[in-house]
Every structure is written in C-alpha cells, then in structure tokens.
Design goal:
The chain has helices spanning 4-54, 132-143, 236-247; strands at 111-117, 120-126, 150-151, 154-156, 162-165, 194-195, 199-202, 215-218, 222-223, 230-234, 256-257, 264-272. It is α+β, with helices and mostly antiparallel strands. It is elongated and about 110 Å long. Residues 11-24 have a biased composition (Basic and acidic residues).
C-alpha cells in the first residue's frame, strides 16, 4: 500500500515532469518562431536590396529610394578636401504645383540654363525642339526660384558617372508636385545604351513619364538604358566643374553617395539664347 508521503512525492515528480515538458515545448515553439522571424527579416532585407538595385537615377516620387542600374561597387577611398565655397544665404523653397505648367516657351528658340553653384558655374545648352515639355518645365521652375539653394544630393563614381541635382529636399524624393512626359528617348546619342559625357538628362522613378525636377549631369560616358530624357548638353567650363566635384569623391567610399564637395545651386536661371 502506497503511503501518503510516497503519494505526495509521486505527485511532486509528476508535476515536475509536466513542467519540464511544457518548458521544452515552449523552447521548441520559441525556436521555430525566431527562425520564422529571421526568415522574414532576411526576405525583407533582400527585397530592400533588390529594390535599391533596381532603382538608381530616381526622382520626385517616393520609391522603394529614386530607376536605372546603380553604379558598381568601388574600392573605399579617403575623403578628399572640399573644393567648393560656402553656400549663399537662403534655403530651398517648399512650393508645390498640382499640374505641369502650360507651354510658355518658344519651341523654335534656343534656351540656356545657368547653374551658379558653390563649386563654379555650369552652363547647359537646352534642346528645346527635342524636349519642349522638359525645357518649359525647367524655365518655369527656375523663374520661380525652385532650384535656388538646393543641394546636388548624389554623386556616382563607378559604373556610371553622374551628379544628380534638382531635389529641394536633398534626399532624392523631392519634386515640384507634378510630373512631365518622357521626351527624346530616340536620340541617337543614347540609342546604344550609353549616355555620353556632357549630357544632362531627367531622373525618374523607373516608370514612364515620372520626371519632375531632378536631373543628372553626366561627367563621363555612362552605360544606361534609354529611359531618361536627354534635354541638353554641358559646356566645357561646366565639365571642368563637374570633374572637380567628382575628384572630391562621395561619402560612402563605395561609388554611390552624397558628394564630398558641398555642391549647392545658389541660383538657377533659364534664358532664351
């Protein structure tokens, strides 16, 4: 016959075993849950990397970062001295517009865009006849002072070679509030998948007709699909300014980041030549 003490000890052992079994099950469930979470995180990280890889010369709308191939990786480089002057007093504007401005330029005339930057003056000869919507938009925005005091926020120094500007936010996600149609994508200069040095072209979100105010200046031949409206060329003195900016490098040391040079457009003007 089992005594009360033996019965009590048996019940205590049974309780202990049940507790141990529950703890084992909880640990197993926790391991499975953590493994599942880790898998989701890995997928999210991979998706983010894929999104960044598929986006590059981005533009005004928020995208999963602004879409051409990004530049290839480059060996880290030491930060070069800033070759540029201090920006003029002032800050970027915040005005937005709901729609593209009405056509107000003479599409048969020649126009020039002058970028007075902290690193030197960059003059752009605009291709009005081939990209009238783009030139008209830039004339409108420049007249509004939209580009004044804005940073050129991105420099690529490997794979593709461009300086990207025109974002009042300085993040790659700003714009005027409206978009303009793609133009001049049949230009023979870009037909073979290269944007030649000296080209100025529109950035976009990777989707057709999503250009806004962001643009990029090509300082060295760059392999890119013909998806970015080329709307002008850079004069020789402007190319020297771009080479100076490029020589200072970019912030990540990986070939794609903010320029080390303090590149700010103090004043932008578009005038009929």
């Amino acid at each position: 016959m089992v005594s009360k003490d033996q019965r009590r000890r048996q019940l205590a052992r049974d309780k202990y075993l049940r507790q141990q079994e529950r703890r084992t099950q909880q640990r197993s469930r926790a391991r499975k849950r953590n493994a599942a979470i880790a898998g989701v995180v890995a997928v999210v990280v991979a998706a983010g990397a894929a999104a960044w890889a598929s986006t590059g010369l981005g533009s005004d709308k928020k995208t999963t970062a602004d879409a051409a191939p990004t530049s290839a990786s480059a060996a880290p480089t030491s930060k070069a001295p800033d070759p540029c002057a201090k920006p003029a007093a002032g800050s970027p504007g915040t005005q937005q517009w709901k729609s593209e401005p009405s056509m107000s330029i003479d599409t048969s005339a020649s126009y020039t865009m002058d970028l007075g930057t902290t690193c030197g003056d960059i003059r752009l000869k605009l291709n009005t006849s081939a990209a009238p919507h783009t030139v008209n938009s830039f004339k409108f925005l420049a007249d509004q002072g939209f580009f004044d005091h804005t940073k050129c926020h991105r420099l690529t120094t490997s794979g593709i070679y461009v300086l990207q500007c025109g974002d009042p936010k300085g993040t790659g996600q700003g714009g005027p509030g409206y978009t303009i149609p793609d133009e001049n994508l049949k230009d023979s200069a870009i037909a073979k998948g290269t944007y030649p040095a000296g080209t100025v072209a529109m950035a976009n979100t990777g989707q057709p007709h999503t250009g806004g105010s962001q643009f990029f200046l090509v300082y060295k031949d760059s392999p890119l699909p013909a998806s970015y409206t080329p709307f002008g060329t850079i004069d020789p003195d402007g190319m020297k300014v771009l080479q100076k900016i490029a020589a200072a490098g970019e912030s990540t040391g990986q070939g794609d980041g903010a320029p080390n040079a303090t590149v700010v457009i103090n004043k932008a003007t578009v005038t009929q030549s």
